[in-house]
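User: I'm preparing a small set of examples for a lab meeting where we compare how different chains pack in three dimensions. I only have the primary sequence for this one, and I'd like the structure in token form so I can line it up with the others. Please keep the answer compact; I'll paste it straight into my notes.
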Amino acid sequence: MTDVLVIDKNGSIKETNVKNYIEKELFKKCGFKKSDGFNKEGEWSIKIDKQSYNILLYGKTTGRANYENKYDFPPPLDNTLFFGSCLLICFKKNESVPCDLTTELWDKIYEKLFGGFEDLASTQEEDDNEIDELENIPKKFKTKSGYLKDDFVVSDSEESGEKEEGLTELSCSSNFNEDESSGLTSEDKLFEEMVLEDFETELEEEEYESSSEDEMFDA
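Assistant: Understood. Below is the structure token output for the 219-residue chain.
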């Protein structure tokens, strides 16, 4: 009897065993009624605890919708879509008879095939013990938000002052643009007003003379 692993379509791993290793009969361990499409789809070679192993994966790459296998297989089979259950069987290097593949052994192989997983507990401890470089910096050298002042980070008060200064410059610029857009200088405006006053005066005199002549004619 040899222990093998069956991975169902939901990603759950179950240990089972085969009495005799007959490749054509492995589909039955995965619950398939027929062997059609059930083949060896991949193989991993790896060394664990000074022992070299070959892990064979059997399964189907064609099937019906909603029967996709949700398990994350290691590279290079991480992008291969399988349907229904899959089977893993293990061989020691240069041996033709399979050896036991337990979930404990597969966990070690799985981790190594993915390049190892980061220990989150140890990294969290390192983060907690990490020294804050800004902790010993005097407050006058930091902004209200706690950042170090430099050419790129300014304090809130400086930023507010820059905004107000920018608004003043914009206002002055707008007034200048209005005068500039008219195309007239202050001297030009003064001359224009004087000409307009002379024209109105002449117009009033002409109207007065015209009305006097009309009165003489009527008489």
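A couple of notes for your slides: Strands lie at 2-7, 13-18, 39-48, 51-60, 83-92, 98-99. Residues 2-113 form one domain.

User: Perfect, thanks.
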